[in-house]
Write a structure and sequence with these properties.
The protein is mainly beta and about 170 residues long. The chain has helices at about 45-50, 50-55; strands at about 5-10, 15-20, 45, 60-65, 70-75, 85-90, 95-100, 105-110, 110-115, 120, 125-130, 135-140, 145-150, 155-160, 170. The protein is built from 2 helices and 15 strands. The strands form 4 sheets. The protein has a 5-stranded antiparallel beta sheet. The radius of gyration is 16 Å and the shape is globular. The two termini are about 25 Å apart. About 30% of the residues are buried.
């Protein structure tokens, strides 16, 4: 098995991570993850996830137990004013403020840049078209997880929130 490398960076330059090795694409959740709820009931396949029209109508929500949350669509397109990666409750459980709207990630793998984000602009155009790389979306124990195909590699992206804190983890 050859060695591979990927560089993941937010477009704003806020954070940068480099991962190397043949197993970097496995992510922190696996298909062997157990849950009381059938994973099939919460999984959306490529047909739904890679279609902007379909994926932007399917929404997810993660809460922190004190009024803060993260929410959005499977496509990553923010279609509602209350969508955001981190919405904090300043006076829990009310007085919410959008702290982080979204993270737009680019992955460089084998010299090719894959823009994983998606935005629908006022004129109706969608750019970039990151949803097209999405192989599946799953909600496992309240953690939304996307699986993207970047060349011959699969990359999982997940969003989680710690309980009772205004923070979000993008893994």
């Amino acid at each position: 098995v050859g060695r591979s490398a990927a560089r993941i960076r937010s477009r704003s330059g806020f954070d940068s991570i480099t991962m190397q090795g043949p197993d970097f694409v496995q992510g922190f959740l696996s298909t062997q993850h157990t849950s009381n709820v059938s994973m099939d009931a919460w999984r959306v396949g490529r047909t739904e996830a890679a279609s902007a029209d379909r994926a932007e109508t399917r929404e997810w929500l993660v809460t922190n137990g004190r009024g803060g949350y993260a929410s959005g669509t499977v496509a990553g397109i923010l279609t509602r004013r209350y969508h955001g990666l981190l919405v904090a409750a300043l006076a829990p459980p009310v007085d919410r403020r959008l702290v982080v709207a979204k993270a737009e990630l680019d992955v460089t793998y084998d010299g090719i840049v894959y823009a994983l984000a998606s935005n629908r602009w006022a004129g109706g155009d969608v750019a970039p078209r990151g949803y097209g790389f999405c192989q599946s979306f799953a909600l496992v124990d309240g953690v939304p997880t996307w699986t993207y195909a970047c060349g011959d590699a699969l990359l999982e992206q997940a969003i989680a929130m710690p309980h009772d804190r205004d923070a979000v983890a993008l893994c």
